[in-house]
Amino acid sequence: MIAYTLIGANDYGKSLQFYDDLLATVGAKRVMDFGNSVLYGFSQGPMFGVCKPYDGGKATFGNGTMIALNVGSTEKVDAMYAKAIKMGAADEGGPGARGDNGFYAAYFRDIDGNKLCAFHMLRS
After folding, report:
1. Cα-flanking dihedrals φ and ψ of residue 23, to 5°?
2. Cys staple from 47: which of 4, 9, 15, 113, with CB 3.0 to 4.6 Å?
3. Which candidate, 51, 71, 73, 53, places its Cα nearest to that of 6?
């Protein structure tokens, strides 16, 4: 159902570099560049985007808003979390199993304060 998500960036160039490096950890890359926004993804499926706010105002994050990225393995969850923290992201909960439902996840806030979750389902 979801085709893509967008988050705003205050320093567009710095944010693109952050996401170029971070998403490469799980094999994602830029798939569309519109000059004021970039969408990342794989050969098919939903995309994740970074943009300059259309209204020219400051990019802000939503309280209670989070984007979860299914990255395909616990190793990729660990790698993405470590990379994000190394590049200046804030910890919101390190990698590990959550509950007993097979959900393995890590949480962090990017350099603009957007909350993300990298996850993998241990069983389907």
Report:
1. -75, -20
2. 4
3. 51
How many residues appear in the chain? 124
**CATH architecture of the domain with range 4-52+67-121:** Roll (3.10)
CA distance linking residue 65 with residue 89, whole number of Å = 16
User: What pTM was estimated for this model as a whole?
Assistant: 0.90
HEC string of 7-48?
EECCCHHHHHHHHHHHHHCCCCEEEEECCCEEEEECCCCCEE
The pLDDT assigned to 58 comes to: 93
- pLDDT per position as a tens digit, 16-41: 999 999 999 999 999 999 999 999 99
Name the β-bridge partners of 30.
40
The helix (run of H) or strand (run of E) holding residue 50 is strand 47-51
CA distances from 25 to 49, 77, 89, 112, 124 (A): 16, 9, 15, 20, 23
